[in-house]
Write a sequence for this structure.
């Protein structure tokens, strides 16, 4: 294991293979992560955060103080519990914090929970995300003027574009099948399950 990411030549702890050299799923799934993926993810989501934050700021800078803690609490702790703890990457015994592109650096405070998310976990995940991304919208409505409406349009567009890019380039290759945004092909999932019996068994329950 290197300092920033898992060794890309070393299989996940849930995998039955001894090495990754001849893996049949490594071209379709991201079992390991790298700096390029992390930078690309940040570049995709950052525009929405900047536009939304600026929209709040021009209304009243003090409301930014509430939005930032919400970001940290949700993405750094709540999302980790309800969604990330189901990911095979989370099962790595030597990791004290996540080394993936989506939640890099978030502490592993919870136990690994293989298998799908519960109905309540999905509710918390979706509700939390809705609160985070809807937070700037009222401020843009309340701050009348063409600038606010332009920012509101740009904010909505940036979110739509981010979701499209994430679904196309990240969620279609992600090993966390429990995530509501995951859209990995069923055949690829089956190949992954064949190599990760613990994960397969949890999804059968």
């Amino acid at each position: 294991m290197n300092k920033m990411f898992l060794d890309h030549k070393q299989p996940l702890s849930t995998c039955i293979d001894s090495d990754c050299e001849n893996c049949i799923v490594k071209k379709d799934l991201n079992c390991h992560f790298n700096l390029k993926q992390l930078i690309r993810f940040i570049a995709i989501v950052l525009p929405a955060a900047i536009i939304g934050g600026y929209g709040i700021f021009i209304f009243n800078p003090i409301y930014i103080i509430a939005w930032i803690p919400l970001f940290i609490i949700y993405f750094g702790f709540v999302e980790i519990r309800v969604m990330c703890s189901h990911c095979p990457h989370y099962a790595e015994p030597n990791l004290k914090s996540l080394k993936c592109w989506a939640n890099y650096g978030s502490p592993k405070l919870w136990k690994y929970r293989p298998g799908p998310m519960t109905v309540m976990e999905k509710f918390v995940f979706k509700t939390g995300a809705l609160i985070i991304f809807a937070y700037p919208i009222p401020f843009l409505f309340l701050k009348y003027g063409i600038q606010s409406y332009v920012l509101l349009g740009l904010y909505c567009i940036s979110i739509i574009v981010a979701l499209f890019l994430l679904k196309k380039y990240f969620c279609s290759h992600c090993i966390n099948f429990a995530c509501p945004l995951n859209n990995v092909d069923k055949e690829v999932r089956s190949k992954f399950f064949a190599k990760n019996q613990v994960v397969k068994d949890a999804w059968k329950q």
